[in-house]
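RETRY 2/3 - previous attempt timed out on the joint model. Re-submitting the same 915-residue input unchanged.
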Amino acid sequence: MEKTYNPKEIETRIYASWEDSGYFSPSKSGAPFCIVIPPPNVTGTLHMGHAFQDTIMDIIIRYERMKGKNTLWQVGTDHAGIATQMVVERQLEKNGTSRQQLGRETFEQEVWKWKEESGSTITKQMKRLGASTDWTKEKFTMDENLVRGVTKVFIQLYEEGLIYRGKRLVNWDPVLQTALSDLEVATSEEKGSLWHMRYPLDGQEDYIVVATTRPETMLGDTAVAVHPDDKRYKHLVGKHIILPLTKRKIPIIADEYVDQAFGTGCVKITPAHDFNDFEIGKKHGLEVISVLDQAAKISQSAPSEYGGLDRFEARRKIVKDLEELGLMHEIEDYLLTIPRGDRSGAILEPLITNQWFLKMEPLAKPAIEVVKNGELKFVPENWSKTYFEWLENIQDWCISRQLWWGHRIPAWYDNEGNVFVGENEPEIRKKHNLDGSIVLTQDQDVLDTWFSSALWPFSSLGWPDDTYDLKTFYPTNVLVTGFDIIFFWVARMVMMGLKFMDEIPFNEIYIHGLIKDKNGQKMSKSKGNILDPIDLIDGISLDDLLEKRVQGLMQPEMEQRIINDTKKEFPNGIPDFGTDALRFNFAIQASTGRDIRLDLNRVEGYRNFCNKIWNASRFIKMNTNDFELLNIKDSQGHAIDQWIQSRYAKTIDEVEKQFGQYRFDLAATAMYEFVWNDFCDWYIELAKTHINDPGIADSKKDYTKNNLINMLDAILRMLHPTIPFITEEIWQSLNEENAKRSIMKSVFPSSDDWKTDDESAENTEWLKNFISSVRQIRSEMNIPPKQSISIIVEDASSLDCERLESLGSFIRNLGSVEAIMHKESSDVLPKSAIALLGEMKVFIPLEGLVDIEEEKGRLEKKLSKLNKELESVQNRLSNDAFIEKAPSDVVDDLKAKLKGLISDQSRIEEQIKLL
RNA sequence: AGGCGCGUAGCUCAGCUGGUUAGAGUGCUUGCUUGACAUGCAAGAGGUCGGCGGUUCGAGUCCGCCCGUGCCUACCA
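RETRY 2/3 succeeded.
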């Protein structure tokens, strides 16, 4: 072992050896256990959220693998239609071309090229994180079998009447020029205006006032609506107004949808450009006039002076024109909800277009049922509520996208517009008996990316082929994901799994929190607060970090702020913490909360933890002749050995319990505390004394030496799922046999492996308390650590005496005590500091060491603390209701405690008097 | 508007079905070049658990209201 812990060197070397070993592949023995990865965007990079999620999945997989399961962590990436197309288009733009100039086929080739170039980034990052995914089975959502799967699913759903095509109002992104599903709409509150416009009544000199946030849509108004009970307007229902600028005569209708209290109580109805208006239009048989084209420019169906104007230019012109006509009643500042595309950020436009839809209700019902009946569980359970809420109010899913990158919709049209759905053109011709004279053209659209992602749990395992993986691993065991994609992905996978596999895709859904920055802000490129997990692993200079954060900013005006914030938060850049430290940090932060704030100070703390493990191992190596296990006759060992074993057994039970309920934070805490506090701070220190005690026979010491090695081995195996690299490195160096194997294929420890001797364990607890008391006095009395002291004990029980006899050397060593004396009744006690240990008094003579007054002060402080507690205990015990109603063991415990407190109190008081 | 979550030490967070003196990491103070580790060791200070009320023998924990804060869903022009 190297003298210093150097994570980087260890980690890259070890990952390569794992990959070569083939250990990530299923062992094909034992019960199957499988996780499919939420496929990241193929051209993306790994962010902190991925790193966190991957760490959790890897902990689970490594744990189950060590438990002897036949494990598969199925890995792969998503083609991410919109995101990827956008990136490539931006690149083309830089090179002075566009997808339109290239044409569809060339463009697709360009995307594939880009995918090949950048697709490995995320893979490389995952490897740095130690992900034990089976890379030989890596899938991509546009792989051959997945394409076949998507087609098969589409055809079947179409044939069952669940997929249909229709001219509907959809969320339209005028920048990307594609339809989006409801889920891809991100609404934000933004400042705007509410324009109150006068609409002249037909044949009268009067007008009514309507309010709108979007005056440009007035060109497409086909009615004005009022509430049927509204007395102000009752007489106008059935009459008409003359729509300004277009001179169109449109009716005044009555509909309960109208809120009388809002604005004037009159609503303009534009069925082609508003979802509500569309419904009202349908109900009242209104004309649908679309006045915007796909780029959100005014279309030819509007008066020619507006034709071709961008929607916002049109707005300004219309407002101006109405003002000139004296028809603008009032303009009010207004806060409104703006729908934006979650990818492009463009303001969306409700637009009438031909799209493909999937009927959701029949699919949603069984998906609700499996969670209701407990077949499928959310962890934490509460998330099922969110899941139900969405599924119970589900809308049909617009699955077509006007993109070039994705799964092409398997539908063809003839010249008359007849639709044929099938695997390919020849098949369709055969099936429908269409001869060569009939021209068929394929639908130009592709499917929503989530359509193929919904099949992932089975398509990634080989479906529609009947593969070993599919047979063995479906349904998978657990899905690990964030709450932000419960609708997008989780619910849809459940629906598709039930529909096409007749089984749920996974038994449990573990929903974890989202990684936020130090200030609780979501990490995003635009905020400039993103961190690359690799930069926490390898470290990064401030300059490099700044460069990364301001590169390719969408809003360059943010640059200065980002630079300032970054300089403030990371004045010296980020140090290299290593993968294991980052993983341990993720594990210990993985509690049930929704936000996980990254705190580099904590990561540093866990880097120190790794360093601690490293050095403890070095110590053991040095003290055991290179981890050499000795032949021993002693089967029990010393009390300290029994104690650490029993602590270990408790810890491993705790770890298993917490892993079982996805509380990686509690498991990690238990491991941390055991390793550092129990093993390093106490056991190793005690073992030093034991091993170096010349009065003890080597045969006795050998047990402890072996125990150090065996405990280390068990600790490494316990820690391995969480911090795989350092544990592998040390474990392989334990002996020659290990060097040829891997800790990842070793057995996860069990408490059954350790006999625990409570009596020995208690002796050691007593010893710890004794040493702590001495140290406490030394420290509080400012007795230099090197200065040896003598101690005198009084009122020692026979057990105390026995323990002092057998464990005295530890006290002398760890407390810098030169002599321990028993006070005889005739002895005169020198002025001393006192500690109480049960019935026993421990005196430290202070002559020549410290001021007596100081000890007095110390005791008085102790006494006042004691008195406070005593008071509270007495109060409770003097309460009859408590005695009567509280469980007897609680009462008994408290009574015993009272006794102890009273004894301590009187003894301290006595001592104060003595001083 | 509805739903969900959060508010515990300076900071980042635990605290399970209510029961000793509310814990950890980090930071802070004091003392230590201890033969594994100063990425360390030992000791210590620091909290009226957001507020008010209720249930209970007993509340950080359960209930209600309020304040602050975050997220999700929804058709107010």
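The longest strand of chain A covers residues 185-200. Closing ticket.
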